[in-house]
Design brief:
By secondary structure, the chain is an alpha+beta fold. It has 2 domains: 87 residues, Probable inorganic polyphosphate/atp-NAD kinase, domain 1 (Rossmann fold, 3-Layer(aba) Sandwich); 95 residues, Sandwich (Tumour Suppressor Smad4), CATH 2.60.200.40. The chain contains 4 helices and 16 strands. The strands form 4 sheets. A 6-stranded antiparallel beta sheet has the order 5-4-15-12-7-8. It has a 6-stranded antiparallel beta sheet with strand order 11-10-9-6-13-14, with no helix packed on it. A two-stranded parallel ribbon has the order 1-2. A hairpin with a 5-residue loop joins β10 and β11. This is Diacylglycerol kinase-like protein. It comes from Prauserella sediminis.
Length: 202
């Protein structure tokens, strides 16, 4: 399949009932497959194994997926499906590993907590490995980095993060949104993504 596969690439592979797919690619490719499962309402039925081609994969780092190809294939084929938080945005996209907003300026809230007012050097959002099974609470972590030489970081945890202010170009799993946005939201979906992991993984 091509990079970041779409409807015509993924949908013909989806069978009825429970199924396991294996994605060989980068985090953006995995997110593209997850998006099709979301659109087809198949998140609860289909487990997805992951063989990352990028050794710096944020999904692999978060969930303990091997970056060695042979070991990753072993896990993808014989591991156990686990529910991991699926983070959506209000523009119809998904985030499975790492979201970035560079030089945000405005006001940001993680749930009801003010996380940002003013400017920052970097804003990062990741699914939270410590989040529980309750999709109505928790699910993502937000890290705000301020300063250039002496970097100061604060991390927040919650179910949703909302940013409003100056126009920015959000990035999800290494893919920049096609235009600048003055408002942006990442939030945990009501169903988790069934990622195949090693039995000893979190």
């Amino acid at each position: 399949m091509p990079a970041r596969p779409g409807k015509a690439d993924v949908d013909p592979l989806l069978e009825t009932g429970r199924q396991r797919l294996v994605v060989v690619g980068d985090d953006a490719d995995l997110s593209a497959v997850a998006l099709r499962l979301l659109r087809k309402n198949r998140l609860d039925e289909i487990a997805v194994g992951y063989v990352p081609t990028d050794p710096s994969s944020q999904v692999a780092e978060l969930w303990g997926v091997p970056t060695d190809r042979r070991r990753a294939f072993d896990v993808a084929l014989s591991g156990e499906p686990r529910g991991v938080p699926l983070v959506r945005d209000d523009a119809g996209g998904l985030l499975l590993g790492h979201g970035v907003v560079r030089r945000p300026r405005g006001v940001g809230y993680c749930d009801d907590t003010e996380a940002l007012r003013g400017e920052a050097a970097l804003l990062e959002v990741r699914p939270d490995p410590k989040a529980g099974d309750d999709t109505a609470s928790g699910g993502l972590r937000v890290t705000i980095t301020r300063g250039k030489l002496l970097k100061r970081r604060r991390t927040f945890a919650g179910r949703a993060f909302q940013l409003g202010g100056a126009e920015v170009v959000p990035e999800s799993d290494g893919v920049a949104y096609p235009r600048a946005m003055s408002r942006w939201t990442w939030y945990r979906h009501t169903h988790d993504f069934r990622l195949v992991l090693r039995p000893t993984s979190v």
